[in-house]
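2024-03-11 09:14:02 INFO worker-7 job=invfold-0412 stage=load source=structure_tokens
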């Protein structure tokens, strides 16, 4: 679904308008699914520059499509102008999922990613091959708990 506008956002629910002008209630599933944001990026200048069209009730960026959300996460982590580009996996996850935000455990997260992808914690993101970059993003989506929900038309 291509989301054109966020109508309202509540816990566990997002009401949106698609490109045909039809309103949908996006429920169940995870924030990452409801917001077309598999990396759970917060809405801010970066997300808006990558096409975010709004946010949910706790500040996660809402992207028009899942592909927009994937591209935003890829550019955030691997773009040559990104602050993450020259960081190690361990340091990048500490910044990406800081302990003060939503009960994150960045060291546990980075160790899990390292084990899942066979990327050493001290490896700089800029040195990863395309294959390892994709593996890292896919593993992050698993860790972040991406799960599809249900779209229901509303009047």
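2024-03-11 09:14:09 INFO worker-7 stage=emit residues=155
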């Amino acid at each position: 679904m291509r989301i054109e506008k966020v109508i309202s956002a509540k816990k566990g629910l997002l009401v949106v308008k698609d490109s045909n002008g039809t309103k949908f209630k996006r429920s169940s599933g995870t924030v990452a699914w409801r917001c077309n944001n598999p990396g759970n990026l917060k809405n801010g200048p970066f997300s808006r520059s990558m096409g975010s069209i709004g946010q949910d009730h706790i500040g996660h960026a809402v992207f028009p499509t899942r592909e927009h959300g994937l591209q935003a996460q890829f550019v955030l982590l691997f773009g040559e102008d990104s602050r993450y580009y020259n960081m190690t996996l361990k340091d990048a996850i500490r910044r990406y999922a800081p302990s003060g935000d939503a009960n994150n455990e960045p060291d546990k997260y980075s160790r899990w990613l390292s084990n899942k992808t066979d990327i050493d914690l001290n490896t700089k993101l800029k040195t990863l091959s395309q294959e390892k970059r994709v593996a890292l993003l896919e593993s992050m989506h698993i860790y972040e708990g991406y799960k599809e929900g249900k779209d229901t038309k509303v009047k």
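2024-03-11 09:14:09 INFO worker-7 stage=report msg="Helices lie at 31-34, 45-49, 66-78, 89-96, 106-117, 130-144."
2024-03-11 09:14:10 INFO worker-7 job finished
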